[in-house]
Each structure stands twice: as C-alpha cells, then as structure tokens.
Amino acid sequence: MKNSIPFKLAAFFRAFSRPEASIHPAGAHAPAKIAPPFQARPPASAIFRWLAVGAGALLAAVLCIQPALAQETLVPADSASRWGLGLGVGVERKPYRGMDNDTQALPLLFYENKWVSLMGSRLDIKLPSAGPVSFGLRARYAAEGYEASDSPVFAGMAERKDGLWLGAAAVWRNDIATVSAELLGDASGNSKGQQARLLVERGFKSGAFEFVPRVAATWLDSKYVGYYYGVNASEATAGRAAYAGKASVNLELGLRTSYALAPRQSVFVDLSVMGLGSGIKDSPLVERSSQSTLRVGYLYRF
C-alpha cells in the first residue's frame, strides 16, 4: 500500500531533494493546492532546507518502531559507540472513520555515542548537559499522513503528507523518574504546525524482565490539527462538514516490557493508549476518542 512507511520514506526524501518539490514529499509532482486553512507559505531558505535534508537522510536510512527500543536518552555516553539490530512488528489503530488497523513488519536499528543518538525515526544531536539535565537538537520523521484511498471518509479530499520535525529536547533523570520534554516544528512545510511533548517514565527490573510504565501529554497546535484532522471548505460534503481544527492536548498511557534472552539479546512488547483532545475528537473525520498501538520485537545489542 502506498501509505506504508517504506514507500512514504522513499518518496519523501526523493522529492525533498529536488528544488521543484518545494519540500512536498509526494514525488515529482507537487500536491494539489488546498484552499484555506491550508494555505501555502513561502519556501524555506536554502540553508534550512539542506539542514532538513541532511537530517532526514539519516532518518530515512532506518525504518523501525522507536518507542520500544529504549527510554529517552540525551545523556552523553562514554567514548565507545553502542548499536543494535533487530526486527519488530507494529499494529496501530488510528481514530479515523473506516480506516483499517495498520500492521507493518519493520527492521530495528539504534546507534549511540557521546555526540549522537539514533533510535529509529528519531535523531538527537547531544549538547552539553547542566547537572542532571541533558539537552539536544532533535529531528523526527513522522508517518502521519493519509491518502484518499485509505478510508471512505477521505474520498474527494487532498492527500495529507508525512512530516519531518525539527526542534530541541531536554531530559532530566532523577531518583524517582525520567522526565523529558521536546518542542518541535514541522520542517517539511506540510502542516506548518508545532507540537510539544512532556513524558514521565520509570523502569523496574525483576530478574530478566524490565517494566517501563510511562505517561505523556502532547500539545498540538491548530495548524497541525487543521492539516491532519481538518476538512477544507472545498472538501466538505453532506456527510462531511467543513472543519478548521483547533489546538488539542493528547494524553498517553503506555507500558514497555522487555525480557533478556541473553546478555546481548532481548524481546519486547510495547503497548500504549492515547486519549485524544477535543480539537481532534470534534473532527468529522474521527469516530474514536483514542488511538492505540501495539509493538513487539527482537533486538540484538552489539
């Protein structure tokens, strides 16, 4: 299916590297214009565009399910590099009307040294820390888009593209829990939105098992919600009212469980449920108030 992550990553970065694509990851042809509230903006500067391309190229080199690999990490590592490979399967139940569950088998890869942390679709450039708080520059590729063929509710609507997000992150480790925060902006120029996330998690070990419960809150601005959950006036029908979208806060509960098969080998299960904010639930495209995800996999650490 054209909505799979491998297909979208290839198309995104192939199109993104061409000036005529104007940062639209849809291939050689620019997507059809979308009337307000999805108005086009002037293209990004050449410097910013190539920075985004460089970060995106690294992200496109791997396809994996990042949340199940490790906890948030920006703490400078020792001089030795660490990396791992594996295989995982992810099942995601999105809230859109008539959309089937998205199931994908994906390779896993992570790499970390003193300066860089790569975990699936997320790349961190580590900055100097301040006591127990570490900082970094973050790039994240997010497969959030959809095509008209993905659900009957999208019939007659313009395609929504995936996003490349750039920004900053901070992690505070203490005796109680690990607290992390990030603020990102859409560098792909698709939604032109912003998002912020606050995450609290803590690990518990019992023999070969490790349990990491987490709770998170994600703020999405009105441009993000309007792009992915909005309905333009030209797309409205008798059964699909126009909707501009409004800022929303999603709340997530999750649990990651891993089992050490051997010193360097482990299997994991990651389950999360995210309650959607009113700005998303009010969309005529949405029929569920939550989004759930299940990920399982195997990882070998070298």
TrEMBL record:
GO biological process entries: peptidoglycan biosynthetic process
Location of this chain's protein in the cell: Cell outer membrane
UniProtKB keywords: Cell outer membrane, Membrane, Signal
A cellular component annotation (GO) from this entry: cell outer membrane
PANTHER family hit by this protein: MLTA-INTERACTING PROTEIN-RELATED (PTHR38776)
Family: Belongs to the MipA/OmpV family.
Name the UniProt record assigns to this protein: MipA/OmpV family protein
